[in-house]
Amino acid sequence: MNSKITWDIRNDYSDYPDEVKEYFFKKYIALRKKYTNWIGQISKDHKNDIDWWSSIPSSRNPNFSRLFEYICVLETVELIKKKKITIIVDNKSFYKIIKKHYG
């Protein structure tokens, strides 16, 4: 795999490049339970906060927000960081995180 990979995370997961899709889906499956448990732990601190319970993360559904996807992307990048890859993102803050940790 010497060619450069362009990964546009704005696309649907099924449209990710084959070179990253396998890694991404393994992380997606492996991290889902940890993610929902993490949200559960955070929720304990907000048990009487109606605003928290009406927010998107409190649902524990990783499809309601991009947070879980961003976590999976970061975990995937960690696995493939030695490959020639360009990642296209839709969020300036997320871009800064990737740039800071992976150049």
What is the topological layout?
Blueprint: E1 5-8, H1 18-44, H2 50-53, H3 67-80, E2 85-88, H4 92-102
Parallel strand pairs: 1-2
Helix pairs in contact: 1-3
Can you characterise this structure?
The chain has helices spanning 18-44, 50-53, 67-80, 92-102, and strands spanning 5-8, 85-88. The longest helix has 27 residues, at 18-44. The protein is mostly helical and 103 residues long. The radius of gyration is 15 Å and the shape is elongated. Helix content is 54%, strand content 8%.
Query: Number of helical segments?
Result: 4
Approximately what portion of the residues adopt beta-strand conformation?
5-15%
Poorly predicted runs of 5 or more residues: none
SS elements, strand count:
2
Please state the average pLDDT score: 86
The helix content is 40-55%
Structural class of the helix and strand makeup?
Answer: mainly alpha
* Structural Rg: 15 Å
Order of strands across the biggest sheet?
1-2
- Taken in chain order, the helices and strands follow as EHHHEH
Q: Give the overall shape.
A: elongated
Please summarize the sheet with the most strands.
2 strands, parallel
Instruction: Report how far apart the termini are.
Output: 20 Å
Quick description:
This protein is 54% helix and 8% strand. It has helices at residues 18-44, 50-53, 67-80, 92-102, and strands at residues 5-8, 85-88.
